[in-house]
Predict the structure.
Amino acid sequence: MARSKEIAPHVGRYSRSQVAAKRGLYKGRWRQRWEENLKTRWEMKKQGRSVDNRGYQPKCTVLGAMMGVGGISFSTVATSSDIRLFSSIGKKTGTAPAKTESPAHTEKTVGGKGNGEKRLVPTNKASKYYPAEDVKKPKVSRKTVGKTALRASITPGTVLILLAGRFAGKRVVYLKQLDSGLLLVSGPFKINGVPLRRVSQAYVIATSTKVDISGVSVPETVNDAYFTKSKVAKGSKEGEFFGEGKEKKVFPEEKKSEQKSVDAALIASIKKVDNLAKYLKASWGLSKGDRFHELKF
């Protein structure tokens, strides 16, 4: 906070607006106002009158006498006016052009002797169709979709138990989280038949078993677009009637090679731990008398 001794001795501290004026932040009438206040304060100081930071004699109260005449220069009340005035600097204050209102009806000439030659036509034509029932317009959502938060128990290399889908009950290894928030997992395919797959964390159980996947590198091509299915044109009804069979889908060779490269590194780290391959191969399920809330995974 700047001292007034730099310009005039025996004068109190500057307010925020005065400090800004001294540094050249305020120009024009702000500089002029600051200089006038400084002169007024200096003259009042010579006369032996008490002055505050705004250049006039304040009311003396008990609290003011205790805290110093003039009050606190950096209080919320004192600074709010300066901030509000400073924010208006440089803003254009020109008046907006007046809007011309179009008339409700326009006069048009009409041909024919018995038509009156002129007719008033509405400027904005009304709709010819009105729904019998009120149709509610859906509200526009302005929420930004952020990345799905991952559970603390799910970390890279955690063995998960799938609870839904084609591979329900299978144990898989968690690799990473995709941009959509889904989890990328692998069986591996050679051990339990589960390929690279996307699953939701709402349908998995995280176990305490971990697999070291520091040597596993997932290709950048394995993302959400990797799992999109290509659209196939629908066949004609005549072909279905005559029993024309559907073309057999061929699994792409690129996806096969990516699956093998990921599984090769996974299997190498799984083999280092005894009975881990058997654990991943065995399916999970509940038996009669099992208390689910007491199970430890």
